[in-house]
Amino acid sequence: MNKIGFNVLAWSAEISENLFPILDRLKTIGYDGAEFFIGGTDEKACRAVGDHCKNIGLEVTTVTVMGPDENPISPDPQVREKAKEKLLGILDRAADLNSQVLCGPYHSAFATFASRAPIEDEYNWSAEVLNSVADHAQKLGVLMTPEALNRFECYLANTMEQLDYLLAKVNHPNVQAMFDTHHANMEEKKLSLAIEKIAPRLGHFHISENDRGTPGSGHVDWNETFATLKKVGYKGWLTIEGFTRNDPAFANSIGVWREFSAPWDMAENGYKLIREIGEKHGL
To answer: What are the DSSP E strand ranges found in 30-176?
Structure first.
């Protein structure tokens, strides 16, 4: 079966030894890996958490975002250069964690808009930034998987069609696509068609309910999703990403204003859902 992961952002955006008990319990539940957010985390903390995961048998994936001061699609070449520098640093921290994947909407700055549709220059600028750091990521053993987001958080890539268009411009084997069912639930006409569209480039997959609560508690069609993943031969991670207000600063930054589900409810019941429906569809 595909490996199953859980994003610890349900508890905290911080990477520190405070996560050790959480990681231990995730391993006990049966998870194959944990996913961490890389912001301004230092090397020492990443190495400590990465070593702990290795010691208990948890693999690692990571996620990050870009801000307006390092926007890969800024018309200012100096800002785009800062984007490259930031991504290189983030990739180094991902390697410190022993991360296999760096996912997230780092093709452009999070929740930063131009009050118009994306233009060709922006796709080209984003592709150039991503391509420029892809060799470094490949040397570190970190697969880059940019993510399409909903229209309220991004305008460059909302759909798999747009993400596919961008990645064709990047044209690097170490830059693939990420699919998140929460965003696709808002932006795609049909989950199965969207998965089939991006399948040749699909490198990472987030299992996320429509409201970011416990998978299976909302209206995402998991049978359709898993059946299509089987159809296209997807072999990568199935990682749950759900949010809470457990870390208020992070919650405020992404517009999480209420509790959707308790973290351990997401972790325990989400794992059961993936195992049951995954086995049903042969994943």
So the answer is: 33-37, 59-63, 99-104, 143-146
Q: What is the CATH number of the domain that holds 257?
A: 3.20.20.150
The confidence score (pLDDT) of residue 242 equals: 86
Q: Report the distance separating Cα 235 and Cα 2, nearest Å.
A: 6
Question: How many domains would you assign to the chain?
Answer: 1
The burial of 232, by beta-carbon neighbours within 10 Å (0-12 exposed, 13-18 middle, 19 or more buried), is given as middle
**What's this model's pTM, rounded to 2 decimal places?**
0.95
Q: Rounded to whole angstroms, what are the CA distances from 274 to 49, 55, 226?
A: 26, 25, 9
Tokens 């391509």 correspond to 131
Give the tens place of pLDDT for each residue, 252-270.
Answer: 777 777 777 789 999 999 9
Coil/strand/helix, residue 197: helix
- Please measure the distance between the N-terminal and C-terminal CA atoms of the chain and give it in whole angstroms: 5
Residue 66 per-residue DSSP state: B
CB 183 within 8 A of CB 149: yes
What is the length of the chain?
283
Tell me if residue 182 falls in helix, strand or coil: helix
Q: Which domain holds residue 86?
A: 4-281
